[in-house]
Amino acid sequence: MEAYQPRHSQKPSSPSSTNSGYYFVPKSVCTWLACGFLALALLHLLCCSPLAGAGDREALLSPLLHYFNDTYSHFSSSGAGQSCDYSEGRWVRAPGHTRRYNATACDAKESHDCIRNGRPDTGYLDWRWQPAAAGCRLPAFDAGAFLSAVRGKHVAFVGDSMARNQAQSLVCLLGAAFPHSVVYRDPVAWRQNFWRWAFPTHGVTVSMYWAPFLARATGKPENDSDPDSVVHLDALADRWAADADGMDVVVLAAGHWLLNRAVYHNGSAVIGAHAHPDRSYTDIGYALPVRQAYRLAVERLVSSGRPRTVVLVTFSPHHFEGKPVDSPTACTNTEPYKEGEKELEGFQKQLRSIVIEEAEAGARIAGGAARVEVLDVTKLAAMRPDGHPNVYMQRDPFAHGVQERMPSDCLHFCLPGPVDTFNEILLQILKKRR
Ligand SMILES: *[C@@H]1O[C@H](CO)[C@@H](O)[C@H](O)[C@H]1NC(C)=O
Ligand SMILES: *[C@@H]1O[C@H](CO)[C@@H](O)[C@H](O)[C@H]1NC(C)=O
Ligand SMILES: *[C@@H]1O[C@H](CO)[C@@H](O)[C@H](O)[C@H]1NC(C)=O
Ligand SMILES: *[C@@H]1O[C@H](CO)[C@@H](O)[C@H](O)[C@H]1NC(C)=O
Hints:
The strands form three sheets. The protein has a seven-stranded mixed beta sheet, with helices on both faces. Strands 7-8-10-11 form a four-stranded mixed beta sheet. A two-stranded antiparallel ribbon has the order 1-2. The radius of gyration is 23 Å and the shape is globular. The chain has helices at about 15-20, 25-45, 55-80, 145-150, 160-175, 240-245, 285-300, 345-365, 380, 420-430; strands spanning about 90-95, 125-130, 155-160, 180-185, 195-200, 205-210, 215-220, 230-235, 250-255, 260-265, 270-275, 310-315, 370-375. The chain is α/β, with parallel strands linked by helices. It contains ten helices and 13 strands. One 2-acetamido-2-deoxy-beta-D-glucopyranose binds near residues 6, 102 and 105. One 2-acetamido-2-deoxy-beta-D-glucopyranose binds near residues 223 and 226.
């Protein structure tokens, strides 16, 4: 295996973001002040330092240039009320970019801990997302900036196992740089469906609430050998709904379960089913239930009057590419797709659109108190067939040779892995001014 270097003592990359006091002054003012001072300092160094030799000058200038670069990139990507569109772009090679933590040390789900499980290629860790929009750059994750942006707040992830994948990525990214502790953990350890972490330096808590339909659901979600999911589209899943009033940042991610077999209720009436073998049900498809589940969740979160940020994550496609989920060759790619190599399928585009439309609908009814944002990951996730555990969801999967059927995961991402980029964008959303 290539040398793996977790960057535990990684310094927050931006001087502006480590100093929380900075945020008390409007950012644009600071940016321009900083630019002004730096321009003067640069001029002074360039013109008025005859004693400094060329090498000395470079040594003196380089930290300043870095600072300027960084300040400028913040300004162009997220300052002054402007924001970048991160939904379109391409993956560019950036050695080490995603080597930021050791998933074993932050207690991530073992089936996502690809390095521990012996995945031999590590090139999937060497990419960063480059937005297509002119002048935009997505800054690397900065744990200090994230914690400062959510100081004193409760950040809750609500949804399916992709929500959990992103929540664990965030906890690992933050935990590599700041002290933390577990407040609560799902007694069923391997599931990790409900847990809460605390970051005491900033009074921040991060929680995961597993609710694969967002709405209340019984059957398969509670008992995996039950073939039916029974979903109540008029009520939210109890556990997160009970805690919703105390959430400041809510990240919603669901969709995959709604593509599968389920029976839908509205109050006491059965309104239909999807992908159900019993033909006596009306098939209502997946689009209406997805829309209804998001609408119910968003309306609940924006109608309470509590100022908060609700972030809807768009659909993250899997890469089984028609192969069975127990195929050892389902997603063995070692590089991202190139532009045009793989187009989104119709249902993936549709699920993405529904989430965006429901976010827009939520923003319209939110009034002043709540902010509704879209974290559009569909394209960037679709381009990363190489970032999944594949058969490395188990430790040393080839210890007994290559089997004909081997469980493989081409949906969730390795930790660390491409899902860390979701949190890089989440940070930019949270830093954005209204
Ligand atoms: C400034 O950033 C660009 C990329 O955005 C990089 O190519 C360049 O080397 C950086 N310059 C300094 C001095 O850090
Ligand atoms: C990751 O951390 C675990 C335990 O905290 C340690 O045993 C392991 O050697 C580390 N892995 C790497 C690749 O550094
Ligand atoms: C889970 O579902 C299966 C199939 O419907 C059933 O036989 C079993 O009793 C259920 N287990 C529990 C704990 O409810
Ligand atoms: C559920 O029933 C209520 C009351 O009849 C109705 O307003 C609502 O549109 C129904 N929702 C769905 C998803 O059918």
